[in-house]
Amino acid sequence: EMPTLLKQHCECPFPFTPNPTLEDTMHCLTWESNKMQLQADMEDALTDIARTSGERTVILCDRGLPDSAAYTSEHEFQTILEEHDWILDKLMNRYSLVVHLESAAIDTSLYAQLAENNPARHESEEEARAQDLRTQQAWATHPNVAMIRNMLCGEDFELKKQLTVNAVFEHLGL
User: Fold this and answer.
1) CA end-to-end span of the chain, whole Å?
2) I need a labelling partner for 120 at 20 to 30 A (CA). Which of 12, 21, 61, 104 fits?
3) Do residues 126 and 75 make contact, with C-beta atoms less than 8 angstroms apart?
């Protein structure tokens, strides 16, 4: 996950500043824009490597480029797209399947424990629930979304992983 990687290696705008100054806002946009570019470059590199390997390959990404729409305003996201000459539909088409694993903040008691283990997690439980909804909305126009809901697996992460694998295998016709 690119946000976690960046958080571990550079100054990041987390937690977000309440009542941000223009400088804070510009820093957040610069961070988000560069995060997206790094992610696009990494995905492109993996795709090139897979294409030339001669093997059937599946590339799994923890987060996709359109996720950034959930962390910015609509105007800010559009600015980032224009800055990179990206079109949202083309970004969506980079992914043949989107598997959304519902946040542990929804229908479980695990969020506080899990948030402690990830430096990129800065939201309260309530904020995480709202963020999950914004992420779902960011992918709403994608034609192939599989939702892995906690109400189906409770706090059993092994089951959640298995449901994810099942969704991928079903998409691949396996």
Assistant:
1) 26
2) 21
3) no
Q: Which amino acid is at 3?
A: P
Per-residue pLDDT of the chain (174 residues; tens, 9 = 90+): 777 777 777 666 555 555 667 777 888 888 889 999 999 999 999 999 999 999 999 999 988 999 999 989 999 999 999 999 999 999 999 999 999 999 888 888 787 777 777 666 677 888 889 999 999 999 999 999 999 998 888 888 899 999 999 999 999 999
- The first and second tokens of residue 92, run together, are 């969506």
For 167: left if phi > 0, alpha if psi spans -120 to 50, otherwise beta; the answer is alpha
Handedness of CA 122, 125, 130, 132 (dihedral sign): positive
b/e code 104-116 from CB counts within 10 Å (16+ = b): bbebbeebeeebe
For residue 34 the two structure tokens come to 């560069």
pTM metric for this prediction: 0.83
- Amino acid identity of residue 34, one-letter, is N
Q: What are the beta bridge partners of residue 80?
A: none
Query: In the structure encoding, which two tokens stand for residue 101, read together?
Result: 């694993």
Q: Residue 44 in contact with residue 90, Cβ under 8 Å?
A: no
Q: Which two three-digit tokens encode residue 25?
A: 């806002």
